[in-house]
């Protein structure tokens, strides 16, 4: 194999698409997926590629520094693409410490392990940290986040991601570790865990349950199809400038209420329900504390420097996403009943 890349969080939503992209596109790379299989990690996401000769899975928790170092010593990765994280804002509000442990301490453990095995010989090496636009805080009605926007995180989730970004840059500035960062907008697509807005609403529409909209529903997010995020990570990993960060987005802002109405419209059409049926399920509920009003990415740098462009429009991506959920009801049932842990034990017993 020409190169070995450790991808952390590869069993999660975005990580599984990144693993698939790399395993398929680079048969001459050895891809090691390192994941703790928390509630959000699911090896079913990788069923179609798990037999590929250039793919391996290692169950490990990035908060375990000694285990991470031993894995890096064994596999000697040339590159690390770091996606493992606690990723849900609402969970960060109820249990912030878990976010500090995985997102901050876990990231520092990976940086230490990379620094240790690369031993200051950084030729051909790269640590790619995958982050979020939420580190920049909240926008008002106008403006966009650029790479130079000052960090101003508000939720425990975004504070932990901001901290991890700072550590990644600090290891570059202090030890010369070769790094790149990507800060991406909200993702959606196949395998999205149904705690986030879009898959939660798809699940609830299927089960004719209320669609909970926080506050007045006027909060705005900038949405990117997950496979387009995976392609951006591939591009930045290979061509991004050492030490730089790149904002990833598709200039695709939606107010939550409009997005959910579009989702309802497409679902009614696909399910053969009368128009307006699903929208009747919309229910305004208590707001999220500290809810950021608006996120919007200025994605000109990645476009102009690396030629990046998303491949699908939002309407197309949403349609692909709904079709995936309709065709994968068993996946949805498993993750919503907790059965996917059982899948792992069966698959890897002994
Ligand atoms: P996810 O919650 O779906 O998956 C996270 C994965 O990390 C899971 O497989 C989980 O098992 C694993 N993990 C969690 N804690 C771990 C630990 N201690 N050790 C090892 N593995 C652990 O998250 P996601 O939505 O796929 O996000 C992936 C990355 O992308 C995160 O770093 C997130 O901050 C970032 N990001 C997400 C979005 C988004 O819209 N979801 C947008 C921008 C950036
Ligand atoms: P979410 O998918 O949790 O992503 P993030 O908080 O990282 O942006 O939420 C997207 C938006 O949808 C956000 O403004 C919060 C809102 N939201 C709801 O209105 N209801 C819900 O049940 C959820 C989960 C989110």
UniProtKB/TrEMBL annotation:
Write down the species.
Answer: Sphingobacterium bambusae
Keyword hit for Disulfide bond: no
Q: Which NCBIfam families match?
A: dTDP_gluc_dehyt
Q: Which cofactor does it need?
A: NAD(+)
| SUPFAM superfamilies, sorted | NAD(P)-binding Rossmann-fold domains
The residue ranges of the NAD(P)-binding domain are: 7-319
Tell me the PANTHER family matching this sequence: DTDP-D-GLUCOSE 4,6-DEHYDRATASE-RELATED (PTHR43000)
Q: What is this protein called?
A: dTDP-glucose 4,6-dehydratase
What is this enzyme's catalytic activity, as reactions?
dTDP-alpha-D-glucose = dTDP-4-dehydro-6-deoxy-alpha-D-glucose + H2O
> What are the protein's UniProt keywords?
Lyase, NAD
At the highest ranks, the source species' classification is: Bacteria, Pseudomonadati, Bacteroidota, Sphingobacteriia, Sphingobacteriales
Give the stretches traversing the membrane. Answer: none
What Gene Ontology terms describe what this protein does at the molecular function level?
dTDP-glucose 4,6-dehydratase activity
The EC designation for this entry is 4.2.1.46
The similarity comment for this entry is:
Belongs to the NAD(P)-dependent epimerase/dehydratase family. dTDP-glucose dehydratase subfamily.
What InterPro entries does this protein map onto?
dTDP_Gluc_deHydtase (IPR005888), NAD(P)-bd_dom (IPR016040), NAD(P)-bd_dom_sf (IPR036291)
């Amino acid at each position: 194999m020409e190169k070995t890349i450790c991808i952390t969080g590869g069993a999660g939503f975005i990580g599984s698409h990144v693993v698939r992209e790399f395993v398929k596109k680079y048969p001459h790379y050895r891809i090691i997926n390192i994941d703790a299989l928390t509630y959000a990690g699911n090896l079913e996401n990788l069923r179609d590629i798990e037999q590929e000769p250039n793919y391996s899975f290692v169950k490990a928790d990035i908060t375990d520094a000694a285990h991470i170092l031993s894995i890096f010593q064994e596999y000697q990765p040339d590159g690390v693409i770091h996606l493992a994280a606690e990723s849900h804002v609402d969970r960060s509000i109820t249990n912030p410490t878990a976010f500090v442990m995985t997102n901050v301490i876990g990231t520092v453990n990976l940086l230490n392990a990379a620094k240790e095995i690369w031993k200051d010989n950084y030729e051909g090496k790269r640590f790619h940290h995958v982050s979020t636009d939420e580190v920049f805080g909240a926008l008002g009605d106008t403006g966009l986040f650029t790479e130079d926007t000052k960090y101003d995180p508000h939720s425990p989730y975004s504070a932990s991601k901001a901290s991890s970004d700072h550590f990644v840059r600090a290891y570059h500035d202090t030890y010369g570790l070769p790094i790149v960062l990507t800060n991406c907008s909200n993702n959606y697509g196949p395998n999205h865990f149904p705690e986030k807005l879009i898959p939660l609403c798809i699940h609830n529409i299927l089960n004719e349950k209320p669609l909970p909209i926080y506050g007045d529903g006027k909060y705005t997010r900038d949405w990117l199809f997950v496979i387009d995020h995976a392609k951006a990570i591939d591009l930045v990993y290979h061509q991004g400038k050492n030490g730089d960060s790149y904002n990833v987005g598709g200039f695709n802002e939606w107010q939550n209420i409009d997005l959910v109405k579009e989702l309802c419209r497409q679902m009614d059409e696909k399910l053969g329900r009368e128009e307006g049926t699903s929208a009747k399920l919309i229910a305004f509920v208590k707001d999220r504390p500290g809810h950021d009003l608006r996120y919007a990415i200025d994605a000109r740098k990645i476009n102009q420097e690396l030629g990046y462009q998303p491949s699908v429009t939002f309407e197309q991506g949403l349609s692909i996403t709904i079709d995936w959920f309709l065709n994968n009801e068993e996946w949805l049932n498993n993750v919503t009943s907790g059965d996917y842990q059982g899948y792992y034990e069966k698959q890897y017993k002994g």
